[in-house]
Amino acid sequence: MGVPILILPSIYDLSINIWGLSVLVWTLSVVQGFLQNFAIGEMAATFGVAGIGGCVQYVFRNDEYYKDKPVNWGKFIGAFSAWSYWFTWTPVIPIFTLMTGDYLRSYFSSAFEGVDNFMPFVFLNNPTSLGIILFNLMLGIIIFSTIIYIGSKGLSGGAKAQLLLAAITIVPLVIVVLIPFFNGNFSLSRFGENWLPADWNWEFSTIALVIGCSAVAQWSACAWESAATYGAEYKNPGKDLPKALISCGLICLFMYFLVSFSTFGTLTVNQINNVWGYATLIPLCKGDFGEIGGAIAMILLISGMVMLIQTAFLGSSRTLFVMSQQGNMPRLLSHTTKTGAPIYAMAFQFMMGIIMIPLGTPGMILAASSFGFCFALGMAMVSFIRARKNPRFKDVPRPWRAPRGWLYVAYVLAFYQFFVLIPCLAYESSQAYGIMSVVIGAIILLIYIPLWFMLQAYNKKHYGSASPDVHEGERSEFEKEV
């Protein structure tokens, strides 16, 4: 239920380049999510693994084949794909911390005037101030500390907090974007004026720009893959998995179209791009409910952002935990509390979020993160192809199978992710945020390669195996005390 909130940063980011055409881009991206998630759901239900990273690690790992070889390349491919998927969700934490700060400072602009103007400077082509950075860091520390406290109680505590936040978020979001259709604020002619710039020409560079924006959009609109990745845990995967996929996909399809269509039919492109920026829904809240009602609606939307931060925080720390169990991250990250919470992995997420907050705008971080998602989704499709064609898996019973012909869909999507989306995303990101967004994305992804090889050498020296598995039940005395 947190996935519809993911559209909020993308409204402004895509509007800068392709205006109202982004409504079509988001809608098609959700449809693309159906194609990808059917394949991911089959793997998850068949092999009993969770997450895109888990599927790729399972399919590519072949310890018997690599037993006498110097490098277990199958395990490396799975580990790098899991790292890419981790990088997809980790930036959600600083992105929505920054957006929460933007909403607060935009709505209560007079109260934060001193903060906005305290020691202004330009960092990575982004006008900011030391006051804004310090405010965002303080906000991040408060949010992350609260989530760590909730998460330390185990998954049950996190689920209860998530349920409460979901209940007070999704309904207000729908109300905020529906009211303009009934109070006269929405105009179909305004939407037509917002469709594309008057001087827009369809040429190679603009087509690449639109496709690059599609890569950014899929970071949001395809994120409901979690309905597929936990397919093995459904009571009856054969029936429950397609129900979950279809229902979640239809909800996202409805929400992404509705939110974007309402926004571009209610506000002008100038208001979105030059006045409100990432705080796009604030003028809708004010137009719907006035100042007081708008403040209440804005607070509820911020609650939704905190809900999404918690989703990303718990999910990405769990990814680190699973990678650590399989010897692909330091063993320390597999340590848990007595409630099963991966507390050290959560502390690592805390540190990464604080480091990324000052890096730049939410858009720059989102663009860098999108590279990881493209690679992870591409590898998920390659894994699906391998799972169907490799003799090791060909005859494995499948509780649920993707529809006939899905193997060819996976071929097309793998090519699309690797050879169309990633190059166009690099072009779009460099145009919108400068080359630093591409550099940051590349550094965070590629830094794992030497880290993995050093980790394998360390494990071999200290544990007698390059990739020792760490199982959840095998806790040290120190862990038991914790």
Please describe what this structure looks like.
The chain has 482 residues and is an all-alpha fold. It has a single domain, classed as Up-down Bundle (Amino acid/polyamine transporter I), CATH 1.20.1740.10. It is built from 22 helices and two strands. It has a two-stranded antiparallel ribbon with strand order 1-2. A hairpin with a 2-residue loop joins strand 1 and strand 2. Helix 17 packs antiparallel against helix 19. The longest helix is centred in the middle third of the chain and has 45 residues. The radius of gyration is 22 Å and the shape is globular. The C terminus is likely disordered.
Can you give keywords for this protein?
482 residues, mainly alpha, Amino acid/polyamine transporter I, 22 helices, 2 strands
In short:
The protein is mostly helical. It contains 22 helices and two strands. The longest helix has 45 residues.
Largest sheet: 2 strands, antiparallel
Cross-sheet strand order for the largest sheet: 1-2
DSSP E strands, number: 2
Structural class call reads mainly alpha
What is the residue-averaged pLDDT?
A: 84
**Could you name the CATH topology?**
Amino acid/polyamine transporter I
Percent helix among the residues?
over 70%
Number of domains: 1
| CATH architecture term | Up-down Bundle
The residue ranges in which pLDDT falls below 50 over 5 or more consecutive positions are 471-482
Distance between the termini: 33 Å
Overall body shape? globular
CATH class, please?
Mainly Alpha
Question: Roughly what fraction of the amino acids lie in strands?
Answer: under 5%
Gyration radius from CA atoms, angstroms: 22 Å
Number of helices: 22
The CATH homology group name:
Amino acid/polyamine transporter I
